[in-house]
Amino acid sequence: MNFLDFPHELRQEILALAVLSPVTPPANASEGQRERVHNYRGIWQLPKQTSTALPLLLVNKQINLEVRRILKHAPAIYHVDIMYFKDRGLWTTWSIPQLPRTQYIDCVYATFRPFEPEGEFEPRYKNSLDFSAGDGGPPIGVWSFYHLLVELFSAGPGYVGSSREESVGHYVYKKIVVDVQAPTDGVEHKSVIINNRDYQKVHSRLGYFANHDNSAFALEERLVKFMCNFLSILLGLNYHTMNHGAQLLENIQESIEFLVNGKPFRVFDIDARATHLDVGYFGVTPESITEREQKYKLWKAWLDDRRKRMKEGLELEDYRPLGKALYIN
Questions:
Q1: Any long-range contacts for 155-164 (C-beta under 8 Å, 24+ apart)?
Q2: Which branch of life, at top level (predicted)?
Q3: Separation of alpha carbons 308 and 311, rounded Å
Q4: Do residues 53 and 15 lie in contact, with contact meaning Cβ atoms separated by under 8 Å?
Q5: What is the predicted pLDDT for the residue at 80?
Q6: Which pLDDT band holds residue 329 (cuts at 50, 70, 90)?
Q7: Are 214 and 222 in contact (CB under 8 A)?
Q8: Residue 274 — very low, low, confident or very high, per pLDDT cuts 50/70/90?
Q9: Does the reported pTM lie above 0.85?
């Protein structure tokens, strides 16, 4: 029986399932390793992730028409699979039915899968995710997780757009859902940040990672707690974190939700936090405190207006009144 002989409603269900379902992610490091390119320190992505709808659009005129109809009415929901290889980076695989039609995205579902870096890896991956170094702030590896998030604001789902130079991100996300899953590689994971081969070595800066090797907690629990702890610090909004935490308030409309193996773990209500901000620290000297308080008031008034426009679905401008930095050190 020819597919076009199927009832129209059934064809639509089948095509929607084919177009909108997440792609099958790599099972291990050997799949797609050679093709990956470096996005940011520790982030490796596939360079040519075409639309999941493209093969069907090329079948024939009738299928093309029906697939376009599905895409026209599909919500702006995107999926990304992130393979977390300790010491070897964060490897992203996106499912992109179509490019965003507007700057508003309904949801990004991110699945984190931790792996012990066993087997053959190309030399370029080694030490690309480093949690032992730093310049007084968090270790460099922490910023890799941060840039997974903020690149969404500037480059959009799949990071397919160019990272913009504007002072504020272009894309707005109603919700971001992060599901941290249990390892499936069949290996005992001694630490959530250190690979088993290097576990016995002396490591600096591990004070940032409480319970990183506490076997009383499952590895996925340790990983999600690590993410939540640093997100809490960013959203604390003080002199040290303002420039980074502000981007979340500027580009996320409702919430960031964390799951563990599909079950709710913690919700960060971004909308509530933006409504009731409390900056904990503006500096030491009276002059610097006064200057920063004035800048904060200007930014807060702009943020309130921006978030009001978000809720109304209006076009947002890619600028911040104070430029890229809210505070001047």
A1: 156/99, 156/100, 156/105, 157/78, 157/80, 157/94, 157/96, 157/100, 157/105, 157/108, 158/49, 158/78, 158/80, 158/94, 158/96, 159/39, 159/45, 159/92, 159/94, 160/49, 160/96, 160/99, 164/318
A2: Eukaryota
A3: 5
A4: no
A5: 97
A6: very low
A7: yes
A8: very high
A9: yes
Please give the Cα distance from 236 to 85 (Å, whole number): 29
Q: How many CB atoms lie within 10 A of CB 98?
A: 21
For residue 293, which of 282, 277, 304 has the smallest C-alpha distance? 282
Q: Mean pLDDT of all residues in the chain?
A: 87
Please choose, from the candidates 78, 74, 106, the residue with its C-alpha nearest in 3D space to the C-alpha of residue 92: 78
2 lies in a domain?
A: no
Domain that holds residue 275: 35-49+75-312
* Euclidean distance between CA atoms 56 and 18, whole angstroms: 9
Six token digits for residue 88: 């070897």
Q: Tell me: the pLDDT tens digits for 105-116?
A: 999 999 999 999
Bigger pLDDT: 137 vs 73: 73
As a 3-state breakdown, the chain gives helix, strand, coil percent values, each rounded to 5, of: 35, 20, 45
Tokens matching residue 311: 């809720």
Cα gap 240→244, rounded to integer Å = 9
DSSP state of 22: P
Question: Is residue 133, in this structure, part of any structural domain at all?
Answer: yes
The answer to whether position 319 is within a domain reads no
> Is pLDDT of 177 > 50?
yes
- CA distances to 7, 37, 236, 247, 320 from 300, rounded to whole Å, are 55, 38, 15, 12, 11
Examine the pLDDT at 124 and tell me if it is beyond 90: yes
Residue 281 in tokens: 């620290």
Residue 318 CA, distance from chain mean position: 20
Strands (E), 164-205: 172-180
What pLDDT, on the 0 to 100 scale, is given for residue 136? 58
What total of structural domains would you count in the chain?
1
What is the model's pLDDT at position 254? 98
Q: Are residues 329 and 283 in contact, defined by beta-carbon separation less than 8 angstroms? A: no
